[in-house]
Design goal:
single chain, alpha+beta, 6 helices
C-alpha cells in the first residue's frame, strides 16, 4: 500500500485554500508554482533561532517558558498515521528541552501577534509533535507543550551607523488536543483516498486551469 507524504506547512494555507489544488499536489505531483519569498524573512528567522541554540529560551524574553533550545530546524518523518494512508514529513523551527525532560515545540512567525494564529497554525505544530513522538526511525521524544513565538517590528533607533529594530516576542501557546488532530488527519486521508475534488471558484489557480482547458477546446 502506498502512503502519501504530507507536509505540515501545507495545512495552514494550501489545504484550507483549495482542496482541488491540495489533492493535485499530494496525489498527482502537480504543485502550484512557488511564489517568490523575500529572503530577508528567512535570514532573520535563521539568525534568531541559531543564536538561541544551547541557551535557555528565556534568553530571548523572561516571559517565555523555561527550557534549553537543543535543536534548530529539525527534520522529522513519521510512521504512517494509524487507520490512514498518510505520513508526515517536514522541518520544525526549534525544539526546547524542559527541566523535567519533556519537550516544547516552537514555531517562529515574523508577523503581527494575533490570537487567530493559534487556530491557523495548530495543525502544523501538531503534525510535528506527532512525528517526533512517532518517528519512522530513531527514538521518540515526548512533546507536551507547543507554541508560536510571534515577532513584529515595534521601534527603531539609529546607532553607530546602524538601524536597530526592536522585535518584542510574544508567546502564543497552542492547547493540546490530540483527538482533534487525529480527526483532522482523518479528514485529510478521506480527501486523498477519494476522487479529485471539483475546482474551487475562489481559487485563482483553478480559474487559470479552467481557462486553459476552455482554450484547448477551440
Amino acid at each position: 500500500m502506498k502512503a502519501y507524504k504530507l507536509s505540515p506547512s501545507d495545512f495552514a494555507y494550501l489545504y484550507q485554500e483549495c482542496k482541488h489544488c491540495y489533492y493535485r499536489k499530494i496525489r498527482m505531483g502537480f504543485a502550484r508554482p512557488k511564489m517568490p519569498f523575500p529572503g530577508i524573512f528567512t535570514a532573520i528567522n535563521s539568525r534568531l533561532q541559531g543564536a538561541l541554540v544551547g541557551n535557555d529560551l528565556r534568553t530571548l524574553s523572561a516571559d517565555l517558558p523555561e527550557g534549553v533550545v537543543i535543536k534548530q530546524e529539525g527534520f522529522v518523518r513519521s510512521q504512517v498515521v494509524p487507520d490512514t494512508e498518510v505520513f508526515l514529513s517536514g522541518k520544525y523551527d526549534i525544539l526546547v528541552q524542559k527541566p523535567d525532560g519533556t519537550h516544547l515545540l516552537i514555531d517562529f512567525k515574523l508577523s503581527e501577534p494575533k490570537e487567530e494564529k493559534i487556530e491557523l497554525y495548530k495543525t502544523q505544530l501538531y503534525a510535528y509533535k506527532f512525528a517526533l513522538e512517532n518517528p519512522q526511525t530513531g527514538e521518540p521524544l515526548m512533546v507536551n507543550q507547543m507554541g508560536l513565538i510571534v515577532m513584529y517590528p515595534d521601534t527603531v533607533k539609529f546607532e553607530n551607523g546602524r538601524a536597530i529594530l526592536d522585535f518584542p516576542p510574544r508567546f502564543l501557546e497552542i492547547p493540546v488536543d490530540s483527538d482533534g488532530f487525529m480527526n483532522f488527519i482523518g479528514e485529510v486521508n478521506k480527501l486523498l483516498t477519494g476522487p479529485l475534488p471539483s475546482k474551487s471558484l475562489s481559487c485563482p489557480w483553478c480559474q487559470y486551469q479552467q481557462i486553459e482547458e476552455d482554450l484547448t477546446e477551440f
